[in-house]
Design a protein that fits this description.
By secondary structure, this protein is mostly beta strands. Helices cover about 10% and strands about 45% of the residues. It contains 13 helices and 35 strands. It has a 22-stranded antiparallel β-barrel. Strands 2-3-8-9-6-7 form a six-stranded mixed sheet. Strands 4-5 form a two-stranded antiparallel sheet. Strand 17 (about 440-465) and strand 18 form a beta hairpin. The protein is globular and about 95 Å long. The model is unreliable at about 1-100 (pLDDT under 50).
Length: about 900
């Protein structure tokens, strides 16, 4: 039974503040702040003089700071540069209270996070996202924020499905994703292969139409108390449009300098008023068709079996070796839809609904298998085979609720249901153990994740008569039911047909069973799991003096399969002057393992062996020393500053330290005759090597980030916005947890140097952005120079350290030139990676076992595809 006591205590505290109670009788209530102002996507505010302790503008003033074109209409296409939240103060949803005073604390009915507080919030507007030339929200956000890293090629095999995002150098699922302040569901795709996203099951924000987004908030310090314990690195809150009229249509065509990777993208949004009391309905859609790229090296293995006399097949000397396709973007077709609405029912209560739906088809190229490969039935594939792992995905989320204001409280009551359903097929391959009777296309199974959540949150400001400003109170409770399912593939995709290898020097030996390169899910992998989560929280915000703010947050979460965990946050901010403020915070967090991390099964056949990822609670994993999977506990400390040294010049800086205990990661690959015997005794007689998810290490993360921008407005030469951003992150292993005794007895490494290197150094330690945005009449120009720090790529677990590939730092230039043909019609041309920069080439000896496939690191944060050009047009109406 789950333990409810911590949740009950929080609710009791919350109830104490309700009118009529002893506590509330001593306080005079003030009005909490509703959402009365918002950013219209594409209407980029001019930089205004904003002081750390300044109040926000009134509605009439806010209306005057939106960017306009020459024709007087909102500028929906001009590129801008990312700025700290204080630059966009006028767009704050909490900007205006009905009394005209600035509210204290976060409001339960606001889709965004309060700015100018103890929490660092960085804003990226829709126009900034569009200016990157990227159509995937993840990639656009990564290009604008130096704190975010996201390789354009997510990975190989199943890792190619979801574009992952790392915040402050931590794992992808250590960042909590929100939409309008509500938790977004995670993907069904577990990433079993080594890389920056190894072992993660993150949320896929690339399924949200970029045209639906008003702005994105990157929330770091204090996010675990505000939004969820699992926001160890921070939270990313995607705030959707709330327009009441008008719309926009965008088209983009792009391609790579190398001549491949052509893409077409179309997106649209339309807003309309619902009723006459401030209601709205915003619809958005996006369709993307991406053709593949290929940067793999020429195949350097044997193409055909030797002739009967032992001499090489003469075709080996003449056959094309341009047959590999595993290093590059996958062919993808994706359709995304969203609807965001609010309808006032009374003067104080509104009905709202936020819904998204996506459908994606993706073909990921696997390893080329020549006719001489023992996995290839050469009677079916006389010239070898190139298997493709195909994804068919349907994803939706429906978030409905009521919000309003009663007895001085702002409140939000909601119910959310979401599901990500993925089915997998292998095409252009065979099951060698079935011989010539093998199919060439296989259904290999499915994975499904779901999330049901329902909750209530409320907020209010109180006048105490003692404090110089009102006391801000926000509290809430949520029930969540997480689900994860795996379904079996068809029998031919996983079975051992008993047919031996038919040709070549190994003829007569046992063939590796299963569809190459991704065997289907066997019956033993079928599972349907659920977890109940009870979450309660409370946040207090107060000013000891007019300049000195303190925030206190607490959260208690009970899991029916784990412990009840309590975490908290303390933050402070002191406004030294109207131009300078200091911040500091201490936070604790907790991230439980996802159900996918606990129960996922994956089988990868190779010519002479098979590697399996086994569920931690399975008999096979238990026999190899797996204990009960634990969650990650974190402690973080940060200090920061916000400054406006002179008018129109803004600086924000942070230093942080994040300690994580019981870091979730995959074990080293475990092998040997004893391991094979243990796997066979557990029903995995075809498996040779195994890994499972565990808690092997405790880590430290040290880092800092700095952003600065300056706006220069001239009468003769237009308006310039200069910006600079840098993030530096260093991860280290503080200590290793106890090695299971069975692994010690077998002399096996629990977490070897290869696993350590992937965890610590597969993403860049530092990133710098320098950008300028120039607007002059109908013209606009955006130029961004990004420097990516070094990283390490290790091709295989057996690669000697002398051949580990260090990718050197690189400078990448992005540019876009725009022109308004008419006030509502604009065109732009641009390039990402203008200089056609490629990562450092990997030593040929390091990738010999890969047949020269990965000539560049697939982890590269700016990709390995070289320069991309594009043209886009936007039409407003």
């Amino acid at each position: 039974m789950p333990r409810h006591m911590p949740l009950s205590l929080l609710m009791l505290l919350a109830t104490a503040a309700w009118p009529g109670s002893t506590v509330s009788a001593a306080l005079a209530a003030t009005t909490d702040t509703p959402e009365t102002a918002h950013t219209h996507a594409g209407r980029v505010p001019h930089t205004t003089r904003t002081r750390p302790d300044a109040k926000r503008s009134a509605p009439r003033q806010a209306a005057s700071v939106t960017s306009r074109t020459a024709g007087g209409r909102p500028d929906v296409s001009r590129p801008v540069v990312m700025r700290p939240s204080h630059v966009l103060a006028s767009t704050d949803p909490e900007a205006i209270s009905v009394t005209g005073s600035q509210p204290v604390g976060n409001s339960a009915i606001s889709p965004g996070t309060r700015r100018h507080s103890t929490t660092q919030v960085t804003i990226v507007s829709n126009a900034e996202l569009m200016a990157t030339g990227q159509t995937n929200l993840t990639q656009a956000l990564a290009q604008m924020s130096p704190s975010i890293s996201s390789p354009p090629q997510p990975g190989t095999g199943p890792d190619a499905f979801v574009q992952t995002m790392q915040l402050r150098g931590l794992s992808a699922d250590q960042t909590l994703i929100l939409v309008d302040g509500h938790r977004r569901h995670i993907s069904a795709a577990f990433n079993p292969n080594p890389g920056p996203n190894w072992g993660t099951e993150p949320t896929d924000i690339g399924l949200i139409p970029i045209s639906a987004v008003d702005h994105v908030e990157i929330v770091t310090e204090g996010a675990s108390a505000l939004y969820g314990q699992d926001a160890i690195a921070g939270a990313v809150n995607i705030v959707l449009r709330r327009d009441t009229k008008g719309g926009q249509v965008n088209f983009k065509n792009s391609g790579y300098y190398a001549g491949d990777g052509q893409a077409l993208d179309g997106s649209a949004s339309y807003g309309m008023a619902l009723g006459h009391s401030g209601g709205y309905l915003d619809l958005a859609a996006q369709v993307t068709h991406q053709l593949p790229t290929n940067r793999s090296g020429l195949y350097n293995g044997t193409m055909y079996h030797a002739l009967p006399d032992g001499s090489p097949d003469p075709r080996d000397a003449t056959a094309s070796r341009d047959v590999q396709r595993s290093l590059g973007l996958s062919k993808t077709t994706q359709e995304d839809l969203s609807a965001n609405m609010e309808l006032p029912l009374t003067n104080s209560i509104s009905l709202y609904s936020t819904d998204t739906y996506s459908h994606r088809r993706l073909n990921a190229a696997e390893n080329y298998r020549s006719a001489a490969d023992d996995l290839t039935v050469d009677a079916l594939w006389p010239n070898g085979m190139l298997p493709y792992l195909k994804l068919n995905e349907n994803d939706f989320e429906v978030n409905n609720g009521f919000r309003g204001r009663t007895l001085g409280f702002s409140w939000d009551s909601y119910i959310n249901y979401a599901k990500d359903h993925q089915t997998y097929h292998m095409q252009g391959t065979n099951n060698a153990s079935l011989g010539t009777a093998s199919p060439t296309t296989f259904y290999t199974g499915k994975a499904v994740s779901s999330q049901l959540s329902t909750g209530f949150k409320a907020s209010r400001n109180f006048e105490t008569g003692v404090l110089p400003k009102p006391l801000g109170l926000e509290f809430g409770a949520e029930y969540r039911r997480d689900g994860f399912q795996m379904g079996a593939g068809d029998e031919a995709s996983w079975t051992d047909g008993g047919v031996p290898i038919l040709t070549g020097p190994d003829a007569g030996k046992a063939a590796t069973p299963g569809a190459a390169d991704h065997a289907g899910n066997p019956p033993l992998s079928v599972t349907s799991q659920n977890r109940d989560v009870y979450d309660g929280h409370m946040n207090l915000d107060l000013f000891l003096t007019k300049k000195w703010e303190w925030t206190f947050g607490g959260r208690a979460v009970s899991y029916n399969n784990l412990a009840t965990v309590m975490t908290g946050s303390v933050g402070t901010r002191y406004n030294v002057s109207h131009r300078f403020a200091l911040r500091a915070s201490v936070n604790t967090g907790y991230r439980p393992p996802t159900l996918g991390q606990t129960y996922y099964f994956y089988s990868s056949p190779s010519p002479t062996y098979t590697t399996v990822q086994i569920p931690t609670n399975s008999s096979a994993a238990q026999a190899l020393g797996a204990g009960k999977l634990k969650g990650e506990y974190s402690r973080s400390y940060s200090i920061g500053l916000d400054a406006t040294p002179v008018d129109n010049f803004h600086v924000t800086g942070n230093l942080y330290y994040i300690a994580i205990n019981d870091r979730l990661a995959s074990t080293s690959t475990l092998g040997g005759s004893a391991v094979q015997a243990l796997l066979a005794n557990s029903g995995l007689g075809n498996a040779t090597y195994a890994t499972y998810y565990t808690n092997p290490v405790n880590t430290n993360t040290f880092g800092g980030d700095l952003t600065a921008d300056y706006t220069l407005s001239t009468q003769r030469y237009g308006r310039f916005v200069f910006s600079f951003g840098v993030n530096i992150t260093d991860n280290e292993i503080r200590s290793y947890n106890k090695v299971p005794s069975v692994l010690k007895q077998l002399g096996l490494s629990y977490f070897n140097a290869y696993a350590k290197e992937i965890l610590l150094h597969s993403s860049p330690k530092n990133r710098e952005n320098l950008a300028v945005n120039w607007n002059y009449g109908k013209w606009s120009l955006f130029v961004q120079e990004s420097r990516y720090g070094s990283l390490v790529y290790v091709a295989t677990p057996s690669t000697p350290t002398s051949l580990w590939a260090k990718q050197s730092p690189a400078f990448v230039t992005n540019i876009e030139l725009g022109y308004h043909i008419f006030p509502r019609w604009s065109v732009a041309i641009g390039a990402n990676n203008l200089g056609n920069e490629y990562p450092t080439r990997v030593n040929k000896k390091a990738i010999a076992s890969q047949f020269n496939a990965m000539v560049y690191s697939p982890y590269s944060p700016y990709g390995s595809n070289g320069g991309m050009y594009y043209v886009r047009t936007s039409l407003g109406f």
